[in-house]
């Protein structure tokens, strides 16, 4: 079924519509997009490595077909999910902290510092 898909052509396709803007600077948006694409790729590699490790642990040898056909059981899938969430949390820590600060309506440290210097 997937043999009929031209993956190279599919990867080059653009999404319809305008790209969402998250930052005031286009370059920052582009950098975030590239970074998140790399995060997704590395996440897939981490899961594939987990598959290889599990197969080697269980059988001592492996074939490419075993890797391609591996389906984690419920416990393994749960473990992978936890690892993926932790990985994403580490990657997004700075963004998450900035969002939490905005929600808390905290004053910027620069304002507090300036106020203390002037006091």
Let me know the number of strands.
0
Binned, the helix content reads over 70%
**Any low-confidence stretches, pLDDT <50, length ≥5?**
none
Beta-strand fraction estimate: under 5%
As for the number of domains, it is: 1
- How many helical stretches? 6
Radius of gyration, CA atoms, in whole angstroms: 22 Å
Along the chain, the helix and strand elements come as HHHHHH
Tell the overall outline: flat
Question: What is the secondary structure topology, with strand pairs?
Answer:
Elements: H1 7-12, H2 26-59, H3 64-69, H4 74-91, H5 93-104, H6 109-118
Helix pairs in contact: 2-4
Q: Explain this structure to me?
A:
Helix content is 72%, strand content 0%. The chain has 119 residues and is mainly α. It is built from 6 helices and no strands. It has helices at 7-12, 26-59, 64-69, 74-91, 93-104, 109-118. The protein has one domain (18-118). Helix 2 (26-59) runs antiparallel to helix 4 (74-91). 1% of the residues are buried. The protein is flat.
